[in-house]
Amino acid sequence: MKNLASFISLMLIITSFSSCKSVNYMKEENLSKVKNIPFQEKDYPNTDKEFFTIQNVRGSNMNINRNRALMAAKTVLANQIQFGIGSIAEQELSFEDSNQREAFEQKSRAVSNLSIAKVTLIDSQILKEKEGANYDYWVVYKVLLDDVVKAINESDLGIITNPAQLLTASSTQND
Question: Rg of the Cα trace of the chain?
C-alpha cells in the first residue's frame, strides 16, 4: 500500500511538472491562434483567365519575407502549370519510350518556369507580433493564363492548348 501511494504521488508530481512546462513553453513562444486569415482561397479562385496563389511567410526581416513569398508563389504556380501541361500531354501525345517522356518533362518544366516570369502581386498584408520582432506576411499572386498559353503554344512541346483547357487539366491536381 505504501508503494502504491508513493507511486501515485510520484506520478502526480511528474504530471504537474510536465504540464507546467508546456504552459510555460506556450507563454515563452507567444503563440496565439489566427482567427481570421487575411485572404481566403474562395476569394481568389482559379479561372480560365488567371491562376492565383496565397502565400504566408513568417520572419523578422521583411525583405527576406517578400523574397521567400515570391519564390513560394512562383514554385506553386509553376508546379500547377506543369501539372496542367502534363495532363494535356497525356491526352494528346503518345511517348514511345522513357527518353521521349523525360525530354518532354524537361521542356515542360522550362516552359512552366518561363511562363511564371510575369507573376503579379495582387494584395498583401503584414501582421506584426504584439511582442517580438516577427512579422506574418500574407500575399496573393496571380499569373495570367493568356501569357502561359502563349508560352506553351510557342514552344516545341507538341501540344496546342487554350486557357480553359489548361484550367481544367490543372484543376485535377487538387482533386
Answer: 25
